[in-house]
Q: What sequence folds into this?
């Protein structure tokens, strides 16, 4: 199984400041045949299902604010919130869909400092 | 719009089985694969398996050692996940989720059900 390791477990960021979340996979999720990284990012608020932010590691889902961006390739990925807003308080998860079993990171809780 | 509406919460005793439903609307049911994912309290999201709603093929996580099955009823546009021989550590919120595109069994999820809390307790 591909193990997804997120860091940090939690972070507190001031409103308007940058938040950076890391996700590392135990093996590459880059498909060399199409040069795509099979990685997505979600946020989850209490009592709600996850909401899609990013897929193919860096493609923003329609309707997601452009303060959210994804980067990285192979085994190392980053989700950046360029200017944290109050509504961004949530737990963030990475997901690899390169192979089954699909696996999620452990989550990063983002709070306001 | 796409909607996935799941059945309500249940309390089960250890050793029992539970069957959770996920009714789809707003799209052509047989064009998309549905996955099941669970989230135990304080734990990460855990993938359980998928069903291709068109042809009915499934792939299940080996982690459940044959305790999980996934089925669908195309006339009811509903997918079912059944988990047997329940244990206390099966207490979790169970989600169905639809993949992003047709002709893909495995892809990121764009739409999720609201979740169903299954509590296993004696």
A:
């Amino acid at each position: 199984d591909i193990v997804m390791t997120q860091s940090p477990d939690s972070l507190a960021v001031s409103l308007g400041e940058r938040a950076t979340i890391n996700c590392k996979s135990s093996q590459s999720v880059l498909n060399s045949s199409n040069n795509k990284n099979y990685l997505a990012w979600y946020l989850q608020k209490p009592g709600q299902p996850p909401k899609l932010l990013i897929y193919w590691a860096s493609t923003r889902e329609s309707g997601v604010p452009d303060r959210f961006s994804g980067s990285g390739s192979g085994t190392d990925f980053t989700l950046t919130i360029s200017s944290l807003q109050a509504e961004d308080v949530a737990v963030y998860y990475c997901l690899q869909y390169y192979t089954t079993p699909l696996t999620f990171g452990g989550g990063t809780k983002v709070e306001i400092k | 719009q796409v909607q996935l509406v799941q059945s309500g919460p249940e309390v089960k005793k250890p050793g029992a089985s539970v069957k959770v439903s996920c009714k789809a609307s707003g799209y052509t049911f047989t064009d998309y694969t549905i996955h099941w994912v669970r989230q135990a309290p304080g734990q990460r999201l855990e993938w359980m398996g998928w069903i291709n709603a068109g042809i009915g093929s499934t792939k299940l996580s080996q982690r459940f050692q044959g305790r999980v099955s996934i089925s669908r009823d195309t006339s009811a546009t509903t997918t079912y996940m059944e988990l047997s021989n329940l244990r206390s550590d099966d207490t979790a919120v169970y989600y169905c989720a639809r993949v992003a595109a047709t002709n893909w069994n495995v892809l990121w999820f764009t739409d999720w059900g609201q979740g169903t809390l299954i509590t296993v307790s004696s």
